[in-house]
Hints:
Elements: E1 6-10, H1 14-25, E2 28-33, E3 47-53, E4 58-62, E5 77-78, H2 85-96, E6 100-107, E7 113-118, E8 124-129, H3 132-136
Parallel strand pairs: 1-4, 5-8
Antiparallel strand pairs: 2-3, 3-4, 6-7, 7-8
Domain Glyoxalase/fosfomycin resistance/dioxygenase: 14-125
Protein name: VOC family protein
Amino acid sequence: MQGPKVYIHFPGTAREALGFYAGIFGGELALYTLEEFNRTDGDPQAIAHGELNGVVCLAGSDASGEDRPFRSEGMMLSLLGTAEPAVLHRWFDQLGASGEVIDPLSVKPWGASDGQVRDRYGLHWLIGYEGAEAAQK
């Protein structure tokens, strides 16, 4: 059984955003339009439901009807220790492209390596790792 999956109502950018995350994290991406779900509450080609399943799992849709588009304060998505250090550095760099590096991914005084980035779609990520790998970077 899996824990909670983040579900994001994008402001008309679900196809692009979920494709962006699939390009970074890999996995399987499924996208379904409003038309495919027989919905008439928006552009027929808007995403009614999209799901990325893999090492990182995300789901979302284009905000339609009474949905409010995603906004976030005081929340991060943590990828601490979810992959090898080289992979985490690559993800950090890719998420930061056209986004904002809040805290560079680097060795911290407590010995671990971590950093924070807000990507181009507004998601705030905490990425890092512990142990001997931290001292090597």
